[in-house]
Amino acid sequence: MERETLYTIKQAAALTGKAPVTVRQLVRAHGLGMKIGRDWLLTYADVQAVRDVPKPGHPPGKMPEPFNPFKRDHHRPKQRSKAIQAASEDPK
Questions:
Q1: Which of 5, 27, 57, 73 is the most buried (most CB within 10 A)?
Q2: Which domains does the chain carry?
Q3: In what order do the strands lie in the sheet with 39-42?
Q4: Rounded to two decimals, what is the model's pTM?
Q5: Can you say whether the dihedral through the CA atoms of 56, 57, 62, 68 is positive or negative?
């Protein structure tokens, strides 16, 4: 029977490119790995699961346009309502 390689939090962080504290938080939040004494040990499948957790925030490619206070129509609505159009066209 072949033994499976186990990784520490520090080793998993190096493999995933995430900070050790982030790996530890993800392991706890998703129920990955096993805690032996004070140390967490992860299998390769656990390390892959940690690596595949997306970063929080906006999904890639769907970032909102950054705020630009100098943009001309930043605070104006894109379309004016019919009542406003009628009022602006009706000279009284």
A1: 27
A2: 1-53 (1.10.1660.10)
A3: 7-8, 39-42, 34-36
A4: 0.59
A5: negative
